Amino acid sequence: MLSSSKCCASSDPLWDLIFHLVFPRLDPKTLARAACVSKSWQTAASSDLIWAPICLSQYPSLSSLMILPMSTTNSYHRLYSLAYTSSHRHRHRPNPHHPSISLHHLAFAIDVSSSSSSSVILMTLAVDGRRLTSRDGVFHFEIDVESGGGCDEEEVRVRWSVVLKEWRGVFVVMDYVGKGMRGGGRRWFTEEVPSPPESGCTCGGGGGGGGLVGEVELVLGERRKVERVRVGLMRSVACWRYVSVDDGLSYLQRFLLPSSN
Questions:
Q1: Which of 80, 74, 32, 85 minimizes the C-alpha distance to 54?
Q2: What is the Cα–Cα distance from 256 to 32, expressed in whole angstroms?
Q3: Is the predicted pLDDT of residue 43 greater than 60, yes or no?
Q4: Beta carbons within 8 Å of 234's beta carbon, 6+ residues apart
Q5: pLDDT at 42 (0 to 100)
Q6: Which N-terminal stretch is annotated as signal sequence (predicted)?
Q7: Beta bridge partners of 188
């Protein structure tokens, strides 16, 4: 349970007013500035009472992973920092040929929201990597959705994030905004993912690491509600085939495990 006892450094009524009425109205950047004022302000500005609503609004599926056994942190402030940094990362790291992580070390989080407002959530899904199974050894997975929302909007925002256990890393694979493609009761979205030529990535056997594409597919049922979600990584150059599980994990590892590079 979230409590303000750890973050309120004083019982002064003015301080209580600032914490309960002012801080919750601040955006993340302003909260970061407020944390620089003093030690007590830093403690207050890092409180889960402040950051939990922000995380639930901006990263709903990542927030739902907090209850999974893989999570050893209860800090929404740290969760936001990881997710935000990953979303704005432009630095790429080399990719080893053989991954030291497996699906058991990961969790997937998929959010589908309105393109006009990310706070209008159409569907959110979080799944432990231990539940994921691959057909034919390729990095392509199907996930059942127990209570999927509708997906009627023409343009949507689709975000697929991968989390390393114990919140040691978060990587946003896709953050797509647009119409995507549709047909046969399905909607699918693709986006080229970061893959620098100097990485030495062997994903798909082509070397160089260029031309990797992330894919999120929504399988719709009655009333156009999402019943299943399929995600994968594929090589767009020449073949449009899914990469192997090992190649997909190697790609993710260079973002999730900086120390292995």
A1: 80
A2: 24
A3: yes
A4: 140, 204, 212, 213, 215, 240, 241, 242, 243
A5: 83
A6: none
A7: 181, 217
Cα Dmax for the chain: 67
Beta bridge partners of 162: 108, 171
Report the alpha-carbon distance of residue 257 to residue 93 in Å, rounded: 10
Retrieve residue 227's tokens: 């019943």
pLDDT tens readout for residues 140-158: 999 999 877 777 788 999 9
4: pLDDT confidence band, cut at 50, 70 and 90? very low
Estimate the crossing angle of helix 48-58 against helix 76-87, to 10 degrees: 40
Contact 169, 70 (CB under 8 A): no
| Overall pTM surpassing 0.90 (yes/no) | no
Whether the CB-CB separation of 82 and 109 falls below 8 Å is answered with no
Indicate the residue type of 125. Answer: L
3-state DSSP: the chain helix, strand, coil percent, rounded to 5? 35, 30, 35
d(CA 258, CA 131): 25
From CA 174, how far away is CA 235, in angstroms rounded?
Answer: 15
